[in-house]
Design a protein that fits this description.
Chain B: This is Glycosyl hydrolase family 16. The complex is a heterodimer of chains A (282) and B (469). Chain A is mainly beta and 282 residues long. In chain A, 14% of the residues lie in helices and 38% in strands. In chain B, the strands form seven sheets. An eight-stranded antiparallel beta sheet of chain B has the order 2-5-12-9-10-18-17-14, with no helix packed on it. In chain B, strands 25, 26, 27, 28, 30, 33 and 35 form a seven-stranded antiparallel beta sheet that branches. In chain B, strands 1, 3, 4, 8, 11 and 13 form a six-stranded antiparallel beta sheet that branches. The chains are: A mainly beta (282), B mainly beta (469).
């Protein structure tokens, strides 16, 4: 009897869960159908699973990023010869006016926020609507890193750069992946492609930067435009079948972008309207 | 077959409808006077002069040549030879333009270019030694006036080819420009050198951003106005972020801006950026450059009817008058000698009800010529002038100096003298009259009057009734 009872209540819970998920599904579907339904080239329909719209209660005024979603890298970043010192100070990272703002200052302080330990996902659509900073040596990025970075290290963990921009070329974005070379797992074997706006710049208005990622492909999008597809055939080793977490940062200087000059206008702010992550709806 | 025929018919019908609509539009437009349009030609100098372009040298004609050896791209570049100090012409300068008059005075081509679809004049440049070119720009129009002049100042060049951008502040205003490129450059620390320009053309880049226009140097300023007085809006500027992420400051004429007045009954502003005071009251003048609002404003506090300077009381027979409507003036008085390169002072002189007023704006210093040749004031013992300062008088410091050239009758030569006074107290909202005693200093060969702002707040002043007695 006791057993039965437990089973029964379990059933009730299950059916409640089912009801909940049906309701949720209905909500999501209707949401999708007006705005978020993306019938990609692969005919995929996406279901929103995680997002930050950066719209806290306006009565609070400017606030720090939601700590249930974001954590920080703090201090100097000892790679790529970058110059910035990352902080979580409000002058470097703040949520206000419905935007996440990451600001690089003339004293080379900046910010790098990430979802490591809070959210990661294998496959799906990762997108951000954002406006980039500009100026020589300014290096904004919206990117993903494999959860295994702490165990296997880089580049074996894999890296997906959804947006990287050199501030001296504000109309060109880079979509890249980094993974190990087959000869040496310590050696980076990247694949990368640029996309340039004609008669416009990524710092002049908001644009949507996205990837759609499946078992055997990563598609790179700017707004509605698919500009790159990377498949296992393009790389020496495909390490993109594990959960990845999200990073947003504004670096100053470094091997990729070159160094800031006396002509670099400061401060420089990356404004993020939202980050959304979807799963494929089966 | 039938289906195909049907679809043809449909297409034809549709086409016909489109044409009818288009035609009826055309007819509507042609009812109004349609202005003549100019060609939107982009090239200025790629491998030679573009069609219809002329060159006029300022100074030595040979400072410009077409160079077939040193090129950035293609077959030819423009070579500019800047003379050393003391060499012929002592500076290099010139203007490239379409249209204008032939040397015999007959207009050969009243042409212009429609630049409204472009957003920059771009070129590649290098030089024989590191230098800063004083000024490069466009919009010097021989026939139409230089209403839409734009330039870059102190352009750094060196021995590497580099691309330069002159953003067009608001291209929609440029539907018939003659002046396509001009330059001014003097010796570099006394030395002559050569610079080259290639691939000079108008472009539609679409990759300028973050325009930051200014009027009144970005400040909110206040000035006093009187009915019918014209007040030029000054301190205009703009910067644009270039396609390489760097901010470029440009010099531009006020005509690029669209001005507006908070109270048009008090003051209005014309297309050239000159405000006219209409009645007593307060009006705030603001501006925009294309879609971008300019930082800075001018509040005009109009006192209504003009306050005239006190009428001079000296007997005409005892007076040598330079500038007064109450006396007969000597001939040849000149109120602004435009001493380059450090003078910023501009003249905005005006006349109200028959009374001429000198108005210096953006005042740092200015020289006057007293008369044709030199003035002998040895028979007089006092120098008189009236000053009105529109706006704030706090901190204003004015130095007034009479320069005597001495017995050699020429500036310099070790025998020049000066009679000067410094005024640091003015009353706001009134004319201030000054009578400067001339003492025993020689004044039989007066060459200049120098008015000078001693690093003070005094940037705008009226002067009237300048005479000796």
């Amino acid at each position: 009897m006791l057993n039965q009872c437990i089973i029964k209540s379990q059933k009730i819970v299950n059916s409640m869960r089912l009801l909940k998920s049906i309701l949720l599904a209905v909500l999501l579907v209707s949401f999708s159908s007006c705005d978020e339904n993306d019938e990609g080239p692969k005919g995929t329909t996406w279901q929103l699973v995680w997002s930050d719209e950066f719209n806290p209660d306006p009565a609070l005024g400017p606030v720090a990023p939601d700590e249930s979603k974001w954590t920080y890298d703090i201090g100097p970043f000892n790679a790529n010869n970058e110059l910035q010192n990352y902080t979580n100070n409000p002058e470097n990272v703040i949520v206000e006016d419905g935007l996440l703002k990451i600001t690089a200052l003339e004293n080379f302080s900046s910010a790098r926020v990430k979802t490591q330990g809070l959210f990661s996902q294998t496959y799906g659509r990762f997108e951000a609507r954002l406006k980039t900073p500009y100026g020589p040596g300014i290096w904004p990025a919206f990117w993903l890193l494999g959860d295994s970075v702490d165990t296997v290290g880089w580049p074996e963990c894999g890296e997906i750069d959804i947006m990287e921009i050199k501030g001296q070329e504000p109309n060109i974005t880079y979509g890249s992946i980094h993974g190990p070379s087959s000869a040496n797992p310590q050696e980076d074997a990247p694949v990368s492609k640029t996309f340039a706006l004609i008669n416009d710049r990524f710092d002049a208005d908001f644009h949507i930067f996205a990837i759609e990622w499946g078992v055997d492909y990563i598609d790179f999008y700017i707004d509605e435009t698919l500009y790159q597809r990377i498949t296992p055939g393009d790389v020496e080793e495909w390490v993109f079948n594990e959960p990845f977490f999200i990073i947003l940062n504004v670096a100053i200087g470094g091997d990729f972008v070159g160094f800031p000059t006396s002509n670099t206008p400061f401060p420089q702010t990356m404004e993020v309207d939202y980050i959304r992550v979807y799963k494929e709806l089966n | 077959m039938k289906n195909i025929k049907n679809s043809y018919t449909k297409t034809i019908c549709l086409l016909a409808m489109v044409f009818i609509t288009a035609l009826s539009c055309e007819r509507d437009i042609s009812d109004d006077a349609v202005p003549a349009t100019f060609a939107p030609t982009a090239e200025v100098f790629i491998d030679g002069f573009s069609g219809g372009m002329q060159f006029q040298a300022f100074g030595d004609i040979y400072n410009f040549n077409v160079d077939n050896d040193v090129v950035y791209k293609g077959l030819a570049s423009m070579r500019f030879a800047v003379p050393a100090e003391g060499e012929t012409g002592s500076f290099a300068g010139g203007n490239f333009f379409t249209g204008g008059a032939n040397p015999d005075g007959t207009t050969f081509y009243a042409g212009g270019r429609d630049l409204s679809e472009f957003d920059a004049l771009t070129f590649w440049a290098k030089s024989s030694m590191p230098a800063e070119i004083d000024e490069v720009g466009f919009g010097l129009n021989p026939d139409q006036g230089s209403v839409f002049r734009v330039s870059l100042k102190n352009v750094a060049v060196n021995s590497n080819w580099k691309k330069y951008y002159i953003p067009i502040p608001d291209a929609s205003k440029l539907t018939g420009e003659q002046g396509l490129f001009y330059y001014f450059e003097g010796p570099e620390q006394g030395l002559g050198y050569t610079f080259w320009i290639d691939e000079l053309q108008f472009e539609k880049l679409g990759t300028f951003a973050h325009a930051q226009p200014l009027i009144l140097n970005g400040n909110d300023e206040t000035t006093t106005g009187f009915n019918t007085v014209e007040i030029p809006l000054t301190g205009v500027g703009a910067s644009f972020n270039l396609p390489n992420g760097i901010n470029q400051t440009i010099e531009l004429t006020p005509a690029y801006f669209t001005f507006s007045s908070s109270d048009e009954a008090v003051a209005t502003v014309n297309d050239l950026g000159i405000a006219t005071v209409n009645s007593e009251g307060t009006a705030i003048i603001t501006a925009s450059l294309g879609e971008f609002e300019a930082q800075g404003s001018l509040t005009i506090e109009s006192a209504g009817a003009f306050l005239f300077a006190p009428t001079p009381t000296q007997d005409e027979a005892d007076v040598i008058s330079l500038f007064s409507n109450n006396y007969t003036n000597v001939s040849g008085y000149t109120s602004n000698l435009f001493w380059e390169p450090y003078q910023t002072t501009l003249s905005a002189d005006f006349n109200i009800a028959g009374d001429d007023i000198i108005n210096y704006i953006e005042f740092n210093f200015v020289g006057n010529q007293l008369t044709d040749g030199l003035l002998d004031a040895s028979g007089e013992d006092t120098f008189h002038f009236d000053v009105f300062i529109p706006g704030d008088v706090a901190g204003a410091q004015l130095r007034v100096a009479l320069r005597d050239f001495g017995d050699d009758g020429a500036e310099g030569g070790g025998d020049d003298g000066e009679i000067a006074m410094i005024i640091s107290s003015f009353t706001a909202g009134e004319w201030n009259s000054f009578d400067m005693p001339l003492g025993a200093t020689g004044r039989s060969n007066l060459g200049f009057i120098v008015w000078e702002n001693l690093n003070s707040t005094l940037t705008n002043l009226y002067i009237d009734n300048i005479y000796f007695y």
